[in-house]
Amino acid sequence: MARSWFKGLLVCSLLTGCGQSAAEPASEPNTITVTGEATVQVAPDKATLQMGVEHQADTVAAAQKQADQVVARILKLTDRLDVDRDHVKTTGLNIRPEYTWLGEPRRRELQGYVVIRQITVQVDDLSRLGDLMAGAVEAGVNQVQPPVFDHSERQKLEREVLASAAKDAEAQAKVLADALGVTLSGPRSVTTGSSPSPQPMPQMVMRMSAESADAAAGYETGRIAIRATVNAQFLVD
């Protein structure tokens, strides 16, 4: 009886194996893969300016007082330029001791304390940007980063560019399908590339005219580029 059970199991295993080997793997569909791209260049209508105030004194309180005085002058400047207080941030604060190394035996000696205040200003009227930068330096700011230009309708522009990139991908796929003599079907998969965040404009684009009597009016903001990519895979018959 045991031998009969073993023979039945062996037959069942062989039949199962034969069934698996006879099954053909599912074939992959024929596809065309393309990458669509689109870019739009627009004039910026706003900018973000990051500035720093750094002062050193014998005590933290003295150094912070000097930095706070500069910040107060910056706030007066932004008020005079009609910059909304909600667009001015002065929360950044860094304090560090300053040492110097002496000779033999080598040891370090405390020279004082450095206080750094960070100021971020968003400017919605670019005609005031030059006055803001020049006035900030006069007020005592000793660190100024290149402005980061942007557009107030970036999200809308990004969607429009994304749609153009999708149309570009479809047009490329149609060209390839016609050239290969196949019929283009619907998309099998679509992925999008992220639009890069606004970056500081190159120094050569944001330049000041040395010949201008009013240097603050000599800034040229140039244009910003908003890009999108679409990776699409289309089915073909």
Structure description:
The structure is a single chain. This protein has 237 residues and is an alpha+beta fold. It has helices spanning 2-22, 60-80, 129-139, 154-180; strands at 31-42, 46-57, 88-102, 107-123, 143-144, 148-150, 184-193, 224-236. The radius of gyration is 33 Å and the shape is elongated. It starts with a helix and ends with a strand. 16% of the residues are buried.
SSE blueprint:
Blueprint: H1 2-22, E1 31-42, E2 46-57, H2 60-80, E3 88-102, E4 107-123, H3 129-139, E5 143-144, E6 148-150, H4 154-180, E7 184-193, E8 224-236
Antiparallel strand pairs: 1-8, 2-4, 2-5, 2-6, 3-4, 7-8
Helix pairs in contact: 2-3
Structural class: alpha+beta
Radius of gyration: 33 Å
Average pLDDT rating: 83
Indicate the CATH topology of the largest domain.
Answer: Translation Initiation Factor IF3
Q: SSE string, helix = H, strand = E?
A: HEEHEEHEEHEE
User: Got a strand count?
Assistant: 8
Main pleated sheet: 5 strands, antiparallel
CATH uppermost class of the largest domain: Alpha Beta
CATH homology-level superfamily of the largest domain = Protein of unknown function (DUF541), domain 1
The tally of helices reads 4
Outline type: elongated
Question: Uncertain segments of ≥5 residues (pLDDT<50)?
Answer: 4-22, 202-217
Distance between the termini: 58 Å
- Count of all domains: 2
Helix content: 25-40%
Q: Architecture of the largest domain, CATH level 2?
A: 2-Layer Sandwich
Strand-residue fraction?
35-45%
